[in-house]
From TrEMBL:
Binds 1 zinc ion per subunit. Its main location: cytoplasm. Pfam families: RsgA_GTPase. Its cofactor is Zn(2+). This is Small ribosomal subunit biogenesis GTPase RsgA. Its EC number is 3.6.1.-. One of several proteins that assist in the late maturation steps of the functional core of the 30S ribosomal subunit. Helps release RbfA from mature subunits. May play a role in the assembly of ribosomal proteins into the subunit. Circularly permuted GTPase that catalyzes slow GTP hydrolysis, GTPase activity is stimulated by the 30S ribosomal subunit. The keyword GTP-binding applies. It is found in: Cytoplasm.
Length: 318
C-alpha cells in the first residue's frame, strides 16, 4: 500500500485537477482506492462519515500521508439494507449479485427473499448458487428453490469442496467480465468460493485489512478482488466479498412497492378489482386468485404478508 505523491496532476486539491480511482476496500471512515495504473492508496472522505462504498468511482487528491476523496461519481446502482436503527450499503455499480445458499445449514428463505427484493429495487440481476448439493440435504434445498426457478431466476448447483474443478468450470463464464457481489450468511461456502476463484485472495485481503486497521483484525471489511489479469480491449471481471449477515432490513422500501419487487406477484398485477389492492384481503384480488390456482407458492405469499406487516409497522409514528 503506497502513500500518495504530493506532486503531479492531483496537486491543488479541490481547485486543481483531481485524479480518478476505484474504491476497493472500505471500513469506517477509511477506504482503499485503486488508481487506473493499479496503485492502491489509503484514503478518507472529507467530513465525519465516509459516503464511499466498494465499487464507487471517486476523484481524489493528496492530503499528507493519505489521499482525500473530494468527489463521488454518479452511481449506476447501490445495494443496501436498512433496519429501524441504521442503514448498511454493501457495494455500488454492480452487474450482478451472487447469492450463496446451501442445505447444510439450511438457508433461510426469508433472508433470500429480502436480498432478492433489495436487488430488484436497485435494478441488479441476481443469480442463486446452491452449494453442497452432494450432501443429503441437497434435494430438500433444491425443492425449496423450485418457485424461484419458476420465476425465471438462474439457479446454479455446485459442490465447491467436493468438486472444485467442476465448480470452477461452472462459475468462470458466469463471473467473467462482470462486477459481482457475493452475498450470503456464514456457512454457505462464501470463503470457499473466494479461495477457489482467487488463490491470491488472502494476500489481497491481508494488505487491505492492514492498511485500514493498522494491523488490527477485522471481519467487517468489504473487499474488491480482480478476476484474472487485465487484457486490453476486454472488460475485467471482479468479485466483491461482503461480511456475512443475519438480518436484512428493508425499511427503505414501502410495503406498497413489495408486489412490484416480487416477480411472481408482479406477474398478476393489473388483475385486481381495486387499483390500490394490497393483495391481502380485498375481494377480486388477482394475486390471491393466482395463489389459489397454485401459480404462486404459499410460502412465498406468507413471506409477502409477513414483510408487509413488518414494513407497515416501521412506518407508523412513535
Amino acid at each position: 500500500m503506497k502513500r500518495p505523491s504530493r506532486g503531479g496532476a492531483a496537486k491543488g486539491g479541490a481547485n486543481g485537477a483531481l485524479q480518478e480511482a476505484l474504491v476497493v476496500g472500505s471500513h469506517g471512515r477509511h477506504v482503499v482506492i485503486e488508481t487506473p495504473e493499479g496503485e492502491r492508496l489509503l484514503a478518507h472522505s472529507r467530513g465525519k462519515k465516509s459516503a464511499c462504498v466498494v465499487g464507487d468511482r471517486v476523484r481524489w487528491a493528496p492530503a499528507g500521508d493519505e489521499a482525500v476523496v473530494e468527489a463521488l461519481s454518479p452511481r449506476r446502482n447501490l445495494l443496501m439494507r436498512q433496519d429501524e436503527w441504521r442503514s448498511k450499503s454493501f457495494a455500488a455499480n454492480l452487474d450482478q449479485l451472487l447469492i450463496m445458499l446451501a442445505g447444510e445449514p439450511m438457508f433461510s428463505e426469508s433472508q433470500l427473499n429480502r436480498a432478492l427484493i433489495a436487488a430488484e429495487d436497485a435494478g441488479i440481476r441476481a443469480v442463486l448458487l446452491l452449494n453442497k448439493v452432494d450432501l443429503p440435504t441437497g434435494d430438500l434445498a433444491r425443492e425449496r428453490l423450485a418457485p424461484y426457478r419458476a420465476m425465471g431466476l438462474t439457479v446454479l448447483e455446485t459442490s465447491l469442496k467436493a468438486q472444485p474443478d467442476a465448480a470452477l468450470a461452472l462459475l468462470a463464464p458466469v463471473l467473467a467480465g462482470h462486477t459481482t457481489l457475493v452475498l450470503g450468511p456464514s456457512g454457505m461456502g462464501k470463503s470457499t468460493l473466494i479461495n477457489l476463484m482467487l488463490p491470491q485472495a488472502q494476500a489481497q485481503v491481508g494488505e487491505i485489512s492492514q492498511a485500514l486497521n493498522a494491523g488490527r483484525h477485522t471481519t467487517t471489511t468489504t473487499t474488491w478482488y480482480w478476476l484474472g489479469d487485465a487484457v486490453e480491449g476486454q472488460v475485467r471481471g471482479a468479485l466483491i466479498d461482503s461480511p456475512g449477515f443475519q438480518e436484512f432490513g428493508l425499511m427503505h422500501i414501502t410495503p406498497q412497492r413489495l408486489p412490484e419487487l416480487m416477480p411472481d406477484l408482479r406477474a398478476q398485477l393489473g388483475h385486481c378489482r381495486f387499483y390500490n389492492c394490497t393483495h391481502r384481503h380485498e375481494p377480486g384480488c388477482g394475486v390471491r386468485e393466482a395463489l389459489d390456482r397454485g401459480e404462486i407458492s404459499p410460502n412465498r405469499y406468507r413471506l409477502y404478508e409477513a414483510l408487509w406487516d413488518e414494513l407497515e409497522a416501521g412506518q407508523r409514528p412513535g
